[in-house]
């Protein structure tokens, strides 16, 4: 019953702010698109949305940080090809149609306060990057339930963030992060972005997926 909505849910997630999106907002978008009330299957559709959300987060993390080994192997392969290919002019191969990635939006930076800053290891970050770093922390420390990936088991840091809760859902954790963000005025954004660039230049490891 829910499977028919998979493509639409994935499309909604691609255009959503993952820091604020919720099962309810996605369900309402589905209802608006289909002109159908999903209240009769509210419980089932919410669970289905949660499953897709968790998988989407995993795909986002993998696609944003391709393995260095693969890139090195690819470069080596190109070098070998250049040195061993005969000097015969071959017709240029047809360019494969590149898969267009969603354009990276220049998200405004926010000040991040504890306990979230302790989790994502920075006090300056855009909202989408904060979500990405938090999920990297969750996976690094295996905080997803083994029986249900939509459930997060809080360690000491997450428990502090989530007001003492032992478990939270993959969606509900977003609401706990909001209290840790402070907006930076538009006119001050360039200064803080430059500050962040200088930090990254001094310590490139800060750009590592696990930092």
Automatic annotation (TrEMBL):
Q: Which residues form the DM2 domain?
A: 98-183
Q: Name the domain of life this protein comes from.
A: Eukaryota
Annotated spans, Disordered = 60-97
According to the entry, every stretch annotated as the DEK-C domain falls at: 1-54
Polar residues: which segments have biased composition? 62-78
| UniProt feature coiled coil, ranges | none
- Please name the PANTHER family in this protein's record: SWI/SNF-RELATED MATRIX-ASSOCIATED ACTIN-DEPENDENT REGULATOR OF CHROMATIN SUBFAMILY D
Task: Write down what this protein is called.
Answer: RNA polymerase I upstream activation factor complex subunit Spp27
State the species of origin. Mucor ambiguus
Q: What is the lineage of its organism?
A: Eukaryota, Fungi, Fungi incertae sedis, Mucoromycota, Mucoromycotina
């Amino acid at each position: 019953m829910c499977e028919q909505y998979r493509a639409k849910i994935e499309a909604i997630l691609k255009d959503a702010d993952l820091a604020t999106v919720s099962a309810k907002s996605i369900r309402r978008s589905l209802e608006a698109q289909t002109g159908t009330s999903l209240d009769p299957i509210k419980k089932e559709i919410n669970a289905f949305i949660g499953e897709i959300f968790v998988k989407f987060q995993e795909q986002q993390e993998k696609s944003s940080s391709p393995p260095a080994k693969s890139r090195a192997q690819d470069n080596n392969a190109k070098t070998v090809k250049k040195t061993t290919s005969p000097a015969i002019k071959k017709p240029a191969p047809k360019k494969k149609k590149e898969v267009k990635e969603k354009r990276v939006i220049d998200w405004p930076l926010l000040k991040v306060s504890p306990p979230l800053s302790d989790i994502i290891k920075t006090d300056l970050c855009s909202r989408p990057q904060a979500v990405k770093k938090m999920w990297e922390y969750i996976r690094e420390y295996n905080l997803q339930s083994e029986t249900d990936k939509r459930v997060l088991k809080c360690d000491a840091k997450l428990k502090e963030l989530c007001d003492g809760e032992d478990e939270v859902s993959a969606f509900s954790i977003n609401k706990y992060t909001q209290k840790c963000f402070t907006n930076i005025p538009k006119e001050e954004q360039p200064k803080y972005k430059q500050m962040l660039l200088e930090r990254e230049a001094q310590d490139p490891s800060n750009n590592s997926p696990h930092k």
